[in-house]
Each structure stands twice: as structure tokens, then as C-alpha cells.
Amino acid sequence: MTRPALRLGVNIDHVATVRNARGGAHPDPVRAARAAEAAGADGITAHLREDRRHIRDADMFAIKAAISVPLNFEMAATEEMLDIALKVRPNAACIVPERREEVTTEGGLAVAGREDELLPMFSRIRDAGIRLSLFIEASEAEIRASAAVGADIVELHTGRYCHDIEGRETELARIAGAAELATSLGIECHAGHGLDFDTVGPIAAIPQMHELNIGHFLMGEAMFTGMQTAITRMRRCMQEARPS
Ligand code: PXP
Asked: Which of 50, 72, 169, 188 is the most core-located residue (most Cβ within 10 A)?
């Protein structure tokens, strides 16, 4: 098969985490989004959490206005978030599960068995011209359920692949199989969570992969080397794993 060009989406949430630690305006996530775009990001991702622990409502609007690459609006499947997303009008809405006490998005969204409950909200997203992306575990049931609710994109959760070193090969095979199935059903395949310079290669090498979304590691690395160097190196790692 011909491989799609692999895009890098950069998540800038944790610039807002640092800003919020002092309650002021610095560092500004909008400036980070612009810097990431200038450094070669193909898209910007930001997650407006229910508790507003990092990105805030005004950030979303300001980021959307400031960038010319697509905005991926990560959100929980709630009426409150839907209302904001419909006003921000991002390129895509990535629906994630959210628990207030979690440190980060810990697992994939449960779509299977909840199709009837989720479909009305998902239809409103798609009817607004916003691409529907579902952050799911790499399981056949979740992919088939995502297809049933009209997902344009599935983003496969790479957290277990990154953190369970002993089970990594098994998880990688599961992700590769899921990418193949999703693509065969006409769904664009993305992946993300926990990726770094060492773990990104095998995921980038999956032929059906369209986009990787990377945040925490890249923002941490940018503190030492700057956004340009961190993003350039990540793109190189992706490219080397995926010769055209
Ligand atoms: N994709 C989704 C859906 C996420 O929730 C996150 C974390 O915010 C990421 C990608 C990026 O994960 P990380 O920050 O670990 O790179």
C-alpha cells in the first residue's frame, strides 16, 4: 500500500500547566502553539479539561485564531464541551474519557455498547463540519463501534505500548492490527500518548498511520533545547522509521 504522509500533531497543554502554576500569563500557550507551528508541527492539539487544570476556554479560542494548521480540540463527551467546541470550530474534536482525579487520560474511550448514547452528540459534531476523532484502545470491538458511530478518525492509545516494556511487542502488534482494521473500514488512523524519541519509531513505521499526537515529552524537551530543536528531532525520528 502507499503510505500516507505521517503528520505530527503537537499538544501544548503543559505550557498552560506551567503558566497556571503561578497564576499569571506566562508562559503563553498561544505563543507555544505558534512556535510549534513555526517549528514544523502539522497540527496543534489542546485538551480543555472539565477542571481547566491547564488549557482554559479563552486559550482555545485564541489558539484557533493564532494558528494556520488544523486545531485538534480534545474534550470529554459532555454538553458543556460540545457547546464550546461548536463555538471554537476546530478542525477535529478528539473525544477522550475524563476522570477528574486522573493525572492524564488513562485509557481509551468506551464506545462499544454506548453507541446509542453517544451517537446524538457525535452527529452534532459532524454536522457542524468538525471531524470526529475517538481516542480508543486498539481493540477490534472499539474500532467497529467507532465505525458504527461515524468516526472520521480513531486515535489509538499508545500509553500501554510506551509504559509496559515487557508487553511492548504484543501491544505494538495490537496497534498495527487495529490500524489496518480501521483503515479497511475507511477510518483515518492516528496514535498518541506517552511517545518520545525512543518509542516513536515503531509506531511511525505502521504503514496506515496518518498522524501522531505528542505533548508531554516534547514540551519537556523544549525546555532544554527549544521548540524548534525538539520538534525537528521528533520529525526526524518519525521520518527515519518511515522511509518514503
Ligand atoms: N492524544 C490524546 C488523546 C491525549 O489525551 C494525550 C494526552 O493529553 C496525547 C495524545 C498526548 O500524550 P502525551 O502528552 O503523553 O504525549
From this structure: 72
Mutate which of 104, 137, 189 for ligand 1? The one with the most ligand atoms within 8 Å of its CB, which is: 104
Does the beta carbon of 193 lie inside 6 Å of ligand 1? yes
C-alpha distances in angstroms, 99 versus 50, 104, 113, 137? 9, 9, 19, 16
CB 93 near ligand 1, within 6 Å: no
* Structure confidence by residue, pLDDT tens digits, 25-65: 999 999 999 999 999 999 999 999 999 999 999 999 999 99
- Per-domain boundaries in the chain: 17-241
pLDDT computed for residue 100 by the predictor: 67
Is 17 a pocket residue for ligand 1 (Cβ < 6 Å)?
no
User: Can you identify the CATH homologous superfamily of domain 17-241?
Assistant: Aldolase class I (3.20.20.70)
Whether the per-residue pLDDT at 243 is higher than 90: the answer is no
For 88-122, how does the pLDDT look when each residue is reduced to its tens digit (9 = 90+)?
999 999 999 987 677 776 789 999 999 999 999 99
Ligand 1: atom nearest CA of 155 is: 3
Helix intervals (H) in 48-101? 57-66, 79-88
Task: Specify the residue with its C-alpha closest to ligand 1, atom 11.
Answer: 193
**Distant-in-sequence, close-in-space partners of 209: CB < 8 Å, separation ≥ 6:** 4, 6, 179, 189, 190, 191, 203
Q: What is the pLDDT of residue 103?
A: 73
Q: What is the pTM of this model?
A: 0.96
Cell for 220?
Answer: 519537556
